Amino acid sequence: MHPLGLVLFAVIALGSWYWWQKQPPEQRRSASWKLVLLFLVIGLLALAITGRMHWLGALIALTLPFLKQLLPLLLRFLPGLARWWQSQQRKRPQGQQRSGKHSGKNTSNANRMSREEALDVLGLKPGANREEILAAHRRLMQKVHPDREGSAYLAAQINAARDSLLD
Predict the structure, then answer these.
(1) SS3 breakdown of the chain: % helix, strand, coil, rounded to 5?
(2) Taking the model in full, what pTM does it have?
């Protein structure tokens, strides 16, 4: 390391230690975290200036501590990330019972479709039995389920087709 760099590091370290000593005891933990962050920033800048680290890598590393505050901004400008975040928020713990329209058969007439439409949605031929209907439903839902970045509209259509054929 360059001698001037060593002197600069020693001055910063001594100044930081002096500043930390002047903090009230109840604020020293917070001050310690601030110092760790300061030394991380200085270290990343030194690596980027000397060419040992790409400047974009240093910039990314500097934003990591602030990611929680930056998350709403990222979600606004990156819709794919927003969909992923929403799907993570909707996930239920294992074993929790489903409720609502998925708990039983759909009896509303608003989403009813004809048998031909339902067969077409599921990609089945007339005369399909219960097992074929359920297998086609399962196969399609694995592809288009909203929790897997799929379409909620298509999932609703597939569910309506299954319910229409099984009633």
Answers:
(1) 75, 0, 25
(2) 0.36
